Amino acid sequence: MNDLFNNVIGYTKSIVEFGFSLALVFLVVDVLFGGLTGIVDNVAALIDSFVSNGVVGLIALLFFLAIYKS
Prior knowledge:
single chain; mainly alpha; flat
């Protein structure tokens, strides 16, 4: 049972890392070719949602970073 959970966690981490890599590629493409993918607007909206919520947004951002690092 423990091996099953470790496999699922491993696959999930791989998928998340792939998603972050893909987002980084889209971000570079968007910067180089000017609004082709629209990810810059999405990242700006995400950051704005954290900033506009004050302390709650800061706590949510720290929680997200803690999950990402583990």
